[in-house]
Write a structure and sequence with these properties.
The complex is a heterodimer of chains A (436) and B (314).
Chain A (H helix, E strand, L loop, with lengths): L7 H4 L26 H56 L5 H16 L17 H12 L12 H45 L9 H32 L3 H12 L27 H85 L10 H9 L3 H6 L1 H6 L4 H7 L10 H11 L1
Helix pairs in contact in A: 5-6, 5-8, 6-7, 6-8, 8-13
Chain B lengths: L1 H52 L5 H16 L16 H12 L12 H44 L4 H31 L5 H12 L18 H32 L2 H4 L24 H8 L10 H5 L1
Helix pairs in contact in B: 3-7, 4-5, 4-7, 5-6, 5-7
Classes of the chains: A mainly alpha (436), B mainly alpha (314).
Organism (chain A): Hucho hucho (huchen)
Keywords (chain A): Cell membrane, Disulfide bond, Ion channel, Ion transport, Membrane, Potassium, Transmembrane, Transmembrane helix, Transport
GO molecular function (chain A): mechanosensitive monoatomic ion channel activity; outward rectifier potassium channel activity; potassium ion leak channel activity
C-alpha cells in the first residue's frame, strides 16, 4: 500500500490494494467449529490452487509451442533452402572461391555482426553502435529489462559492468515506474471522481450505477491508452522506420511488455536495407526512450488490471461457491428442522394410534374371548388382530399393519400386551418412518 | 495539497536521477566498448579485402551475398553446414521460445518469421505475461511463508534475537543461498556444457536471463550437434522459472526488511504492505471481501507500488 502522501486524493476513499497481489482481507470461515483445522485446510487448498494454475501455465506453454512450430517451421525450411541456393549460386558463379573459404568468411562476418559491426556498408560513414546516444539507449534497455540484444557488450569489462549496472539500475527503474504509475493512477482516479460527480448531478432518469461508470471509464481508459501509447507510436514507427503495420504493432507490444526480442529496434536502422541509411533526427532516440517509460507504466497498469480480473473472477467463483455452500447449509438446516418437526408430529400421531390400537385389541379380545396373557402374540396374529379392528379405523391406519415390526426386547419385557408406554416411541416412529 | 505537490517533486527528482544514471552508464559503456568495436571493424575490412584480392569475386556480388546471409542469420538460419540439421522450431525449441516470450526474457535468437507468427506472438504475450506473473507471485507468496516468516519467527522465539537483526541476518543468508544456488552453480554447469562459454560468460548469461533482460548474445543449446538438445532446453526452461521465483522471493524479502528497518519510509517509497497475518492469505484464495475491496479492484489504475508489473519483472 502506498503511503498516504502519494495517494492523496484516494487515500480517503479506500485502502489502495496493490495489484496482482495479496488481498489483505480475512477469508470467510464457513464452518466455524472447525477452527483448529483451518490453517491446514487452507494450506491444502492453496497448494492445490497454485498447482492447478501452474499446470495451466504449462499447458499454455505447450499450446503456444505447438502453434509456433506449426506456423514457423515451414518458413524456416524455406529460408534454409533459399540461402543454400544462394550459396551454391555464388559458388558456381565465382569458380575460384571454394566452399571452405566462403564458410570461413561467413563465420567471421556473422561474429562481426554479433558484435554490431556491419561489413556490408561503407566503413567511413557508418555510425558506431557505441556512440553516446546509442549507449544511452542500450543502458535504457538494460535497466528496463527489455534487453533488445542488437547491441550487447563484448568485452569482459563491459559485461561485468553491465551486471553491476543492472543490479542497481533495475530497482531504481522499478521505483520510477511505481511513481509514474502512481501519478497516472491518480490522474485517472481524479477523472473518475469528476465523471461520477457529473453523473451524480444529472436528473434522476439519467442515473447510472457506480459500477457501470467504473466499467465504462476503465474501457475508455484502455482505449485511450491504446491509442496514445500503441496505435500512435506504431503509426509513427511505420512512417519513420519503414516497417509494415503489423511489424510496428509487433515492435510496440514486444517492447512495452519488456520482452524485447531485438529483431526490430527503433532508431537502429541496422542491417536490413543496407544501402539506405535513415537519417534520424537528433531527438528521435530520447523521445523513443521517453515513450518507452510512459508506455511501460501504462502496460504495467493494463497487465495488472488483467491480473486483477483473474483474481476477481476467481474470487467471484469462490464467492459463488461460498454462497452455494451457505445456501446448502441453510437448506440442510431447514430440511432437518422440518424433519424433526415431522418426526415429532408423527410420534404423537403414532402414540395416539397405538393407544387406539391397544383399546381396539382389548375390545377384540374381550369379544373373541381370547386371553391376551396366555396367547403368544405372533407378529402375524398381531397384525391380524389389528387388522380386524373396526372398518373405519382400518382405512385410517393402512400403514400401521405393514410396519409393526416387533421390537424383540420391548415385547418380551411387556409380555404380549402392547404396552405402548413401555415401548419407546423412537423405535416405532423409526420403523414407521422407514416404511414411509 | 502540499503532499501531492511533494509527490510530484519526488517524482521529478527520481526521473532526473534516473536520467543521470543512464548518462553515466552510457558514458562508461561507450568508453569500454568503442575501441573494441573499431578494431573489429578494421579487421573485417581487412578480411574482405583479402578475400576479394585472392578471388574472382567482385565487391558488389560479395555484398549482395553477404546481405542475404546476414538476413537469414538474423532469423537464426545459418549457412554453415553442420547447423542445418537441427531446426529452430522443433517442439523443444518452440517451447523454449514460448517460455522466453511469456517470462518476458525475450532472447531474440529466434524470432517469428511469418506475419501470422508475429500476430500470434502479440496475443500470446498479452495473455501469457500477466498469467505468468500471477503464477509466480502466487508461488512466491507461499514460499515466503516457508522461507521467511517461519525461520524468522523461529529465530526470534528460540534465540530471542531482536527482530531487525533477525530479518537482516535471514536476508543475508537467503541472498547467499540464492546467489550460490542460482548463479554460481548453474554457471559452472553451463560453462561445462557449452564449450565456447567461459565461467564469466556463463555468470553473465545467468544474470541477464534471471533479470529477464535477455540480450540474447548467449543462448544455451544453440551449439550445433548438441547432445540431448530437447532435454537441455527444457531443463533451462525449468531453471528460468525457478530462478525467477527465487529472484522475486529475494526482492520481497528485501522489501520487507527495508520496511522493517524504516528505509522505505525514509525514501517515501511504497511499502510492502503485508502484515504477517495478512500475508497468510494467498493471491487466489481471498475470501469474499467487503464491498470496498470489490470496488477498489474494479479500478484499473490503483498505484502499482512495489508490485507493479515491471518490478515484478525483476
Amino acid at each position: 500500500m502506498a503511503p498516504p502522501d502519494l495517494l492523496d486524493p484516494k487515500s480517503a476513499a479506500h485502502n489502495s490494494k496493490p495489484r496482482l497481489s495479496f488481498s489483505a482481507a480475512k477469508p470467510v470461515v464457513l464452518n466455524s467449529p472447525e477452527d483448529e483445522y483451518d490453517t491446514t485446510r487452507f494450506t491444502v487448498m492453496r497448494w492445490k490452487t497454485v498447482s492447478v494454475i501452474f499446470f495451466l501455465v504449462v499447458l499454455y506453454l505447450i499450446v503456444g509451442a505447438l502453434v509456433f512450430r506449426a506456423l514457423e517451421q515451414p518458413h524456416e525450411s524455406q529460408q534454409k533452402l533459399a540461402i543454400l541456393a544462394e550459396k551454391l549460386d555464388f559458388l558456381s558463379l565465382h569458380a575460384c572461391v571454394n566452399s571452405s573459404e566462403l564458410e570461413d568468411l561467413v563465420k567471421q562476418v556473422i561474429s562481426a555482426i554479433r558484435a554490431g559491426v556491419n561489413p556490408s556498408a561503407n566503413s567511413s560513414n557508418q555510425t558506431s553502435l557505441w556512440d553516446l546516444s546509442s549507449s544511452f539507449f542500450f543502458a535504457g534497455t538494460v535497466i528496463t529489462t527489455i534487453g533488445f540484444g542488437n547491441i550487447a557488450p563484448h568485452t569482459e569489462g563491459g559485461r561485468i559492468f553491465c551486471i553491476i549496472y543492472a543490479l542497481l539500475g533495475i530497482p531504481l527503474f522499478g521505483f520510477l515506474l511505481a511513481g509514474v504509475g502512481d501519478q497516472l493512477g491518480t490522474i485517472f482516479g481524479k477523472g473518475i471522481n469528476r465523471v461520477e460527480k457529473i453523473v451524480g448531478s444529472l436528473p434522476q432518469k439519467w442515473k447510472v450505477s457506480q459500477t457501470k461508470i467504473r466499467v465504462i471509464s476503465t474501457v475508455i481508459f484502455i482505449l485511450f491508452g491504446c491509442v496514445l501509447f500503441v496505435a500512435l507510436p506504431a503509426v509513427i514507427f511505420k512512417h519513420i522506420e519503414g516497417w509494415s503495420t503489423l511489424e510496428s504493432i509487433y515492435f510496440v507490444v514486444i517492447t512495452l511488455t519488456t520482452i524485447g526480442f531485438g529483431d526490430f529496434v527503433a532508431g537502429e536502422k541496422g542491417l536490413e536495407k543496407g544501402g539506405s541509411e535513415i537519417e534520424y533526427l537528433d531527438y528521435y532516440k530520447p523521445v523513443v526512450w521517453f515513450w518507452i517509460l510512459i508506455g511501460l507504466a501504462y502496460f504495467a497498469a493494463v497487465l495488472s488490471m488483467i491480473g486483477d480480473w483473474f483474481r476477481v473472477i476467481s474470487k467471484k467463483t469462490k464467492e459463488e461457491v461460498g454462497e452455494f455452500r451457505i445456501h446448502a447449509a441453510e437448506w440442510t438446516a431447514n430440511v432437518s428442522a422440518e424433519f424433526k418437526e415431522t418426526r415429532r408430529r408423527l410420534s404423537v400421531d403414532i402414540s395416539n394410534k397405538f393407544e387406539r390400537a391397544a383399546s381396539i385389541k382389548r375390545r377384540l379380545s374381550s369379544e373373541l374371548g381370547l386371553n391376551p396373557i396366555t396367547q403368544e402374540m405372533t407378529p402375524g396374529r398381531r397384525t391380524l388382530s389389528v387388522n380386524l379392528g373396526p372398518g373405519d379405523e382400518r382405512e385410517a391406519y393402512p400403514n400401521l399393519a405393514l410396519s409393526l415390526t416387533p421390537v424383540p426386547g420391548a415385547l418380551a419385557r411387556n409380555g404380549s400386551g402392547l404396552y405402548l408406554n413401555g415401548l419407546s416411541p423412537e423405535y416405532a416412529e423409526v420403523a414407521i418412518i422407514e416404511s414411509l | 495539497m502540499s503532499s501531492g505537490y511533494k509527490s510530484w517533486i519526488l517524482l521529478t527528482g527520481f526521473i532526473l536521477f534516473y536520467v543521470a544514471y543512464l548518462l553515466f552508464g552510457a558514458f562508461v559503456f561507450s568508453t569500454i566498448e568503442r575501441p573494441v568495436e573499431d578494431k573489429l571493424k578494421r579487421d573485417i575490412q581487412v578480411l574482405k579485402e583479402e578475400f576479394l584480392n585472392q578471388s574472382c569475386v567482385n565487391a558488389t556480388s560479395l555484398e549482395n551475398f553477404l546481405e542475404k546471409v546476414l538476413q537469414a542469420n538474423k532469423y537464426g538460419v545459418s549457412i554453415l553446414p553442420n547447423s542445418s540439421a537441427s531446426s529452430n522450431w522443433d517442439l523443444a525449441s518452440s517451447l523454449f521460445f514460448a517460455n522466453t516470450l511469456v517470462t518476458t526474457v525475450g532472447y531474440g535468437h529466434t524470432t517469428p518469421l511469418s506475419d501470422t507468427g508475429k500476430a500470434f506472438s502479440i496475443f500470446y504475450a498479452l495473455l501469457g505475461v500477466p498469467f505468468t506473473m500471477l503464477v509466480l507471485t502466487a508461488c512466491v507468496q507461499r514460499l515466503m511463508h516457508l522461507v521467511t516468516y517461519g525461520p524468522i519467527s523461529m529465530c526470534r522465539q528460540k534465540i530471542g534475537m531482536d527482530p531487525l537483526a533477525a530479518t537482516a541476518v535471514h536476508f543475508a543468508i537467503l541472498l547467499l543461498v540464492v546467489v550460490l544456488g542460482f548463479f554460481v552453480v548453474p554457471a559452472v554447469v553451463f560453462s561445462y556444457i557449452e564449450d565456447t562459454w567461459s565461467f564469466l560468460d556463463a555468470i553473465y548469461f545467468c544474470f541477464i536471463t534471471l533479470c529477464t533482460i535477455g540480450l540474447g548474445d548467449y543462448v544455451p543449446g544453440e551449439k550445433p550437434g548438441q547432445n540431448f538438445r530437447s532435454l537441455y532446453k527444457i531443463s533451462v526452461m525449468v531453471y528460468l522459472f525457478v530462478g525467477l521465483m527465487m529472484m522475486y522471493l529475494v526482492l520481497r524479502a528485501f522489501h520487507r526488511m527495508a520496511d522493517l528497518h524504516g528505509l522505505t519510509s525514509f525514501f517515501q517509497l511504497p511499502h510492502c504492505d503485508e502484515d504477517i497475518e495478512e500475508d497468510k492469505e494467498p493471491i487466489i484464495e481471498a475470501g469474499p471481501e467487503d464491498q470496498h475491496e470489490a470496488e477498489a479492484s474494479a479500478k484499473p489504475l490503483d498505484p502499482a507500488s512495489h508490485t507493479s508489473y515491471n518490478t515484478i519483472n525483476r
